[in-house]
């Protein structure tokens, strides 16, 4: 039993050293959020009389040209009749609807560039729309089945997307749309008693029923010791988005919460505050909260067994989102943003896969990463010297534990001037990097966005000379804040003048006498941390909102996009080090819609607790929903000293995350795998070897997501969109299309787990080959510390490389093992994608892409019994890639010696009579009747070739 | 013909591997086929399975124990032997076989398919011999110095033995003296005990005892508070220099500012901004003591100096002397009174002086007499006894220390089985790393001293040799642990692992803080240079 003392300590811990709620605002501490929630409260109080004050003029084109993709028209607000707004509605390819609204001829301009950074291009317009007028509304009918209907109600303004006659998404259905117009401080004098001929007359504010009668935090706002001067006054944006027929909503990362988002308001509320999107460096964040974290993707999926849709609300300013699950299996949401135009995309689905494709069409996909970046990353704040790095590498090798990447945190840099080595501890950085690269490993080195304000720092000096640093509220000079190096300034990546400069810094050879990072190599990956941006002495640990960026935009307008630009430029810079470019690796902490194009993210500074381990999985799943699949959480937890059991379990979580890195705070004990006692050390070694053996699966999954946008970690609702019971499950997931299902253990002392299975299918234990048939939709699998709940879905073929190596590039010529897991009808399929893992050669067809199949044919006479199983390999690239593809391409030739060394066939009913290479020799094999496992020894077929192995059972 | 097709024919390329490829010499004899009818078979070394002889080294793992693939990477956790002719054979992990990298350990290139790695055994062997020679030379020189350390230990042993013998004699003498004085004291006391008991009932005496206890308690409390204040000051000082200004913890910042105000220090951020780091932190320190002193009250210095003395006052003597004082004034009372104001060291001589004066006075019929005189007499005897006992104890302590030193010299847990470390006891080595100088006084304490001034932190006191090894083994003496140094803010007590190797000099080479407040310092010492002959004997065994 735990002693009362320990209990007490556990109770005290969170308050004594954890998240400081006083550092960050609640909705009630943010003026515009307060106003937004008050608006919604007023609507609730007057349900019968409430109506939106916004209406539109009937679009002019109607009925002249019914086939145009959309229209622009003016919007009128009954409470501010003199203010002009404009609405633009368009239907794009794939049935994506875009709705934009802006103030027209206002005193100032609302920020309208968020989409420019998020989208990969201007979306193409649909040519397949027919508009018609219908009693105060315009209707667009489109889609291949003509079952999509967009209805725009004129007065009050309401936009509804239907599919098959069912409401999918409704904008302003609850009348909470409100765009606060620009005004002067004079104009905005509140309604007051006006002295008239000695009489006091109460001037009634005609807008009060909607806007309220107070001018809450219109012109300045103080939080803690900081005052936001708000020179532009109120300009917030409120919009209600309702999904009347979808009971689950997902997405809007990044929050430490369940994948299926809980309510924040109404009778079902689990939280009191709305979900917040405001990129923040939150010290020791809570494992269950709606507080904003490091990144923001304003994309929300709404899902039901019949349909999936999504909204992508392209906002770059601080945004709060209230969610209420309504009784009649729908969800009401309310989005409150501080500034910016209204710019909403409606993604029509109808399946999760369609939504992913539609979102990918807008913002792009995660490109194929460098193959080595899927290996294991060993990080710590900090490896203290070149010799420390060498020592860590030696210890890994002595223990034969695979690792691909060693990381350097901020202490490598003299006075935290990034790029500048501390020569006392790193006297030979290039030699050190080359010692790491000698084992085909890589180094990733941190470069943060804050520049030490010191003229002996060439990066700061040049940025200052170029005038590309963020400006303070005056709009003049350089904003100065406090970060790791002390007094710092930040490059304004919105300034085009900063782009070439930043790219030039990463060159490993000096060009034109400009300073560049000659003390690095072209293989070095870059870690972009602190790009929320984190400012230690700023409001909410970030920049003041009235700071000024390029183009005169305030920081408040661009905050959530800001961090993405940093990673974007670093990604470009790292790629541009060589000609032709090679795939760079960049890790970012802050992110936004579109960040998936620029590398990986991790879930920031988590704690070494079971709760954080568990929520890390949910956060990575949510990031996948948000289109950013290359994600992981710090293995072991950034803060704290995890006990060995926790560390072992966390390594499993890491091994089954797209991005797999162990990291630790400077105050923690070292915990590199080789330091563990037995049996933990061997357990972690085995987990790491498992990850490496499965790199073909991961890489193949990355290829798929780079095309489809479908996340790598697939929760139940993505895999089985019609299986209602799975919609809330977020502690197990499938890896890509491989058929691997994993449920990492995230609790102490677990001996077995129950895995949910949505289908009537056989699932095989990955390690024991045991065939499970679900009972009541569940499988119970043993889960002692040396066991991983990992299943292969019947019908899958899993390609692995089983030879332990020190690093992943050293596996390039290793043979493959194929696990052929037959489904209940004796069939299976799988995929393997390979390329050189480094260059963009795949774009011109330098790939090997194989499809594996197993087909059973029934035997003679005996009805259901399988007669033969034919296992084959075919070329998928020829079938799908563009004309340039040559099966004998350069890469394929370079792996011409790679063979398939073993087939493991699971689910054979009885012992085979023979196993023959199609058109060739008899093969050696062994059969274990328990479980029906056939192992075929070394068919010696080349992985690049077409081949078939025929198993005869009778 | 298309080159593509040529390649296709080249598979499998490893088929022709020698069956004993990668087998270590001790196992080569086990790699022979058995003939079973028409075909040859082979049994896995663990006996678990019989396989075709052709399956040995065919790049497919058949045996559970991996023994069928000594020369490939097909079985995990195998060992691969490279013969390295011209050099020394080596064993590598099978994960390094056929991975495309030429292993340094396998200079014959046998870890990769033939033609991939050059055979560099000639060069590597020569290089290795050169290195070994250099190491041997170093050890030879080092071991000479080491023998001088051993000689020193023997000399030291002799010195201590002589010292111990002398001390034994001295103790004997002192023991006798104590016996003699005890005898006198006991006799004197038996005479006066009853009278003394009566006098002790005096309210004045009782009150004095209470005052004494109160004062003693106050002193104890005072000392406790002083220590506490110092500890708090240390904590706050390390908070001030060590806190991370970046976490925006206002409470910490306030604490730092408060401490700076109280201790009169400049704000640390201003200091950090300056080029000299913490240079001026001590310079500006004003006197923290209160300048205003209440008239007549003792100040801190006086308390420090004289309170102990006051508490040592012998109240019984005072009681007796008081009696005389309240009686008729006399020279004796004055003289008796003086003893209260004399420091301990002067007391014995004063007492004898007083005794002679007193006896002279009594001769002339002056001075107190009777019972009270007897009490004073017994008390004096008691003082003399305790003086003698004290001296005896000091001598005994000295003997104990000498004995301990003596046994430590050749204790494998102490200065090594040959006493080779005795010479280094207390030797201070230091390493300047720019910002700090690290000093290790061997077997004593390690310190971190800022080069910008200030006393720095204790990194710990010597606590043990390498606990992972056994005392007496060379490995045991390659690591020293210094633990329980000054506590880090938000961290552990500072500690040092001193990693030593054989070298001709006692010197520190590198300092690294691998974990917060845990330092690894490397260095060399001749004490670790065992003579070369040692190894030969070992090898033969």
What key phrases describe this protein's structure?
heterodimer; A: 954 residues; alpha+beta; Immunoglobulin-like; 10-stranded antiparallel sheet; 8-stranded antiparallel sheet; 17 helices; globular; disordered N terminus; B: 541 residues; Cation-dependent Mannose-6-phosphate Receptor, Chain A; 8-stranded mixed sheet; 3-stranded antiparallel sheet; 11 helices; elongated; disordered C terminus; Glyco_hydro_31_AS (chain A)
Structure description:
The complex is a heterodimer of chains A (954) and B (541). Chain A has 17 helices and 51 strands. In chain A, helix 6 runs parallel beside helix 7 and helix 8 runs antiparallel to helix 9. Chain A has 954 residues and is α+β, with helices and mostly antiparallel strands. Chain B has 541 residues and is α+β, with helices and mostly antiparallel strands. Chain B is elongated, with a radius of gyration of 39 Å. Classes of the chains: A alpha+beta (954), B alpha+beta (541). At the A-B interface, strand 47 and strand 50 of A face helix 1 and strand 12 of B.
């Amino acid at each position: 039993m735990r002693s009362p003392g320990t209990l007490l300590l556990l109770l005290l811990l969170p308050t004594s050293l954890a998240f400081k709620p006083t550092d960050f605002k609640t909705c009630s501490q943010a003026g515009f959020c307060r106003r937004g929630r008050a608006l919604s409260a007023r609507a609730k109080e007057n349900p019968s009389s409430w109506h939106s004050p916004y209406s539109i003029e009937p679009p002019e084109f109607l009925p002249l040209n019914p086939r145009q993709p959309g229209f622009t028209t003016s919007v009128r607000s009954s409470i501010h009749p003199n203010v002009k707004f404009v609405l633009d509605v368009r239907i794009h390819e794939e049935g994506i609807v875009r709705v934009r609204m802006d103030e027209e001829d206002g005193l100032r301009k609302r920020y309208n560039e968020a989409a420019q950074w998020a989208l990969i291009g201007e979306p193409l317009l649909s040519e397949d729309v027919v508009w018609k007028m219908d009693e105060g509304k315009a209707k667009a009918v489109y889609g291949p089945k003509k079952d999509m209907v967009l209805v725009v109600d004129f007065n009050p303004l309401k936009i509804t997307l239907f599919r098959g006659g069912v409401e999918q998404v409704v904008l302003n259905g609850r009348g909470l749309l409100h765009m606060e117009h620009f005004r002067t401080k004079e104009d905005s004098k509140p309604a007051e008693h006006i002295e008239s001929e000695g009489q006091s007359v109460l001037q009634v504010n005609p807008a009060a029923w909607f806007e309220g009668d107070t001018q809450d935090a219109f012109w300045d706002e103080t939080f803690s010791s900081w005052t936001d001067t708000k020179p532009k006054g109120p300009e917030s944006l409120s919009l209600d988005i309702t999904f009347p027929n979808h009971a689950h909503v997902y997405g809007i990362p990044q929050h430490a919460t369940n994948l299926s988002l809980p309510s924040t308001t109404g009778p079902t509320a689990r939280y009191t505050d709305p979900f917040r999107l405001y990129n923040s460096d939150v010290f020791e964040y809570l494992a269950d909260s709606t507080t904003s974290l490091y990144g923001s993707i304003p994309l929300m999926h709404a899902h039901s067994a019949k349909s999936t849709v999504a909204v992508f609300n392209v906002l770059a300013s601080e945004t709060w989102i209230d969610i209420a699950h309504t009784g009649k299996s729908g969800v009401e949401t309310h989005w409150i943003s501080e500034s910016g135009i209204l710019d909403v995309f409606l993604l029509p689905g109808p399946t999760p896969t369609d939504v992913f494709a539609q979102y990918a069409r807008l913002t792009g996909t995660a490109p194929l990463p460098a193959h080595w970046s899927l290996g294991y990353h060993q990080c710590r704040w900090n490896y203290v010297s070149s010799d420390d790095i060498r020592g860590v590498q030696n210890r890994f090798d002595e223990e034969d534990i695979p690792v691909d990447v060693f990381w350097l945190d901020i202490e490598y840099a003299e006075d935290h001037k990034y790029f500048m080595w501390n020569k006392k501890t790193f006297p030979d950085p290039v030699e050190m990097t080359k010692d790491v690269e000698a084992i085909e490993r890589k180094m990733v080195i941190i470069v943060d966005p804050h520049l030490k304000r010191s003229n002996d720092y060439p990066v700061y000096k040049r940025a200052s000379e170029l005038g590309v640093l963020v400006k303070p509220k005056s709009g003049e000079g350089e904003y100065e804040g406090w970060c790791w190096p002390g007094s710092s300034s930040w490059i304004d990546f919105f300034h085009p003048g900063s782009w070439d400069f930043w790219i030039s810094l990463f060159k490993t050879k000096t060009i034109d006498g400009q300073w560049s990072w000659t003390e690095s190599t072209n293989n070095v990956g870059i870690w972009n941390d602190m790009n929320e941006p984190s400012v230690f002495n700023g409001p909410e640990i970030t920049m003041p909102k009235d700071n000024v960026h390029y183009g005169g935009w305030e920081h408040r307008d661009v905050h959530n996009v800001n961090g993405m630009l940093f990673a974007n430029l670093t990604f470009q810079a790292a790629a541009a080090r060589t000609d032709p470019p090679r795939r760079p690796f960049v890790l970012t902490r802050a992110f936004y819609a579109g960040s998936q194009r620029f590398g990986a993210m991790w879930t920031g500074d988590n704690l070494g607790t079971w709760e954080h381990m568990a929520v890390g999985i949910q956060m990575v799943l949510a990031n996948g929903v948000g289109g950013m699949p290359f994600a992981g959480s710090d293995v072991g937890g950034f803060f704290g000293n995890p006990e060995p059991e926790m560390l072992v379990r966390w390594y499993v979580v890491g091994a089954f995350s797209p991005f797999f890195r162990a990291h630790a705070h400077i105050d923690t004990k070292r915990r590199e795998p080789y330091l563990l006692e037995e049996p933990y050390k061997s357990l972690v070694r085995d987990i790491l070897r498992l990850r490496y053996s499965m790199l073909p699966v991961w890489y193949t999954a990355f290829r798929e997501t780079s095309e489809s946008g479908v996340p790598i970690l697939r929760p139940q609702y993505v895999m089985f969109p019609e299986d209602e019971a799975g919609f809330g499950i977020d502690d197990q997931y499938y890896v890509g299309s491989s058929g691997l299902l994993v449920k990492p253990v995230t609790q102490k002392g677990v001996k077995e787990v129950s895995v949910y299975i949505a289908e009537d299918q056989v699932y095989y234990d990955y390690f024991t080959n045991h065939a499970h048939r679900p009972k009541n939709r569940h499988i119970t699998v043993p889960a002692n510390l040396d066991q991983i709940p990992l299943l292969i879905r019947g019908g899958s073929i899993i390609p692995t490389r089983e030879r332990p190596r020190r690093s992943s590039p050293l596996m390039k010529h290793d043979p493959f093992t194929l696990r052929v897991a037959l489904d209940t009808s004796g069939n299976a399929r799988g995929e393997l994608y390979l390329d050189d893992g480094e260059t963009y050669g795949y774009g011109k067809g330098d790939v090997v892409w194989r499809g594996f199949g197993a087909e059973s044919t029934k035997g003679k006479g005996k009805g259901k019994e399988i007669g033969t199983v034919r296992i084959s390999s075919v070329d998928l690239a020829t079938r799908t890639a563009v004309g340039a593809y040559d099966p004998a391409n350069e890469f394929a030739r370079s792996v011409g010696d790679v063979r398939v060394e073993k087939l493991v066939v699971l689910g054979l009913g009885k012992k085979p009579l023979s196993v023959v290479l199609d058109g060739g020799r008899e093969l050696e094999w062994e059969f274990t009747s328990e479980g029906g496992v056939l192992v075929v020894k070394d068919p010696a077929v080349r992985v690049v070739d077409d081949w078939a192995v025929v198993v005869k059972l009778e | 013909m298309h080159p593509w097709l040529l390649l296709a024919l080249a598979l499998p390329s490893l088929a022709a591997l020698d069956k004993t490829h990668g087998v270590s010499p001790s196992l080569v004899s086990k790699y022979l086929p058995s003939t079973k009818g028409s075909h040859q078979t082979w049994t896995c070394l663990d006996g678990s399975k019989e396989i075709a002889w052709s399956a040995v080294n065919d790049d497919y793992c058949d045996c559970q124990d991996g023994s069928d693939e000594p020369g490939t990477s097909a079985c995990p956790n195998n060992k691969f032997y490279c013969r390295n002719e011209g050099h020394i054979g080596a064993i590598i992990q099978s994960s390094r076989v056929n991975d495309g990298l030429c292993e340094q350990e396998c200079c014959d290139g046998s870890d990769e398919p033939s033609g991939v790695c050059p055979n560099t055994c000639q060069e590597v062997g020569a290089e290795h011999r050169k290195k070994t020679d250099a190491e041997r030379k170093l050890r030879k020189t080092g071991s000479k110095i080491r023998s001088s350390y051993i000689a020193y230990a023997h000399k030291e042993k002799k010195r201590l033995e002589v010292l111990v013998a002398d001390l034994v004699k001295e103790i004997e003498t002192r023991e006798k003296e104590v016996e003699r004085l005890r005898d006198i004291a006991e006799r004197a006391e038996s005479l006066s005990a009853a009278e003394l008991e009566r006098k002790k009932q005096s309210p004045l005496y009782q009150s004095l005892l209470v005052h004494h206890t109160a004062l003693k308690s106050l002193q104890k409390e005072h000392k406790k508070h002083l220590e506490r204040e110092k500890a708090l000051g240390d904590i706050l000082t390390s908070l001030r220099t060590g806190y991370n200004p970046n976490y925006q913890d206002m409470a910490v910042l306030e604490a730092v500012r408060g401490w700076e105000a109280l201790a009169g220090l400049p704000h640390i951020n201003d200091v950090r901004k300056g080029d000299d780091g913490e240079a001026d932190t001590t310079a500006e320190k004003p006197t923290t003591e209160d300048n205003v002193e209440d008239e007549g009250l003792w100040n801190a210095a006086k308390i420090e100096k004289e309170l102990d003395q006051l508490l040592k006052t012998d109240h019984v003597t005072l009681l007796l002397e008081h009696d005389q004082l309240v009686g008729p004034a006399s020279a004796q009372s004055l003289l008796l009174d003086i003893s209260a104001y004399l420091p301990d060291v002067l007391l014995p001589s004063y007492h004898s002086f007083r005794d002679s004066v007193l006896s002279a006075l009594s001769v002339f019929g002056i001075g107190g007499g009777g019972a009270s005189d007897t009490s004073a007499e017994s008390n004096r005897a008691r003082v003399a006894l305790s003086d003698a006992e004290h001296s005896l104890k000091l001598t005994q302590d000295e003997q104990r220390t000498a004995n301990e030193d003596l046994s430590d010299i050749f204790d494998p847990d102490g200065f090594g089985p040959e006493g080779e470390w005795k010479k280094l006891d207390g030797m201070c080595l230091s390493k300047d790393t720019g910002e700090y100088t690290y000093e290790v006084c061997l077997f004593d304490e390690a310190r971190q001293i800022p080069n910008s001034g200030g006393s720095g932190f204790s990194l710990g006191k010597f606590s043990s040799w390498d606990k992972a090894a056994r005392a007496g083994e060379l490995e045991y003496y390659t690591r020293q642990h210094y633990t329980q140094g000054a506590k880090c803010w938000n961290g552990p007590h500072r500690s040092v692992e001193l990693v030593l190797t054989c070298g001709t000099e006692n010197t520190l080479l590198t300092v690294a803080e691998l974990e917060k407040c845990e330092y690894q310092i490397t260095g060399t010492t001749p004490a670790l240079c065992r003579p070369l002959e040692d190894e030969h004997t070992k090898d033969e065994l």
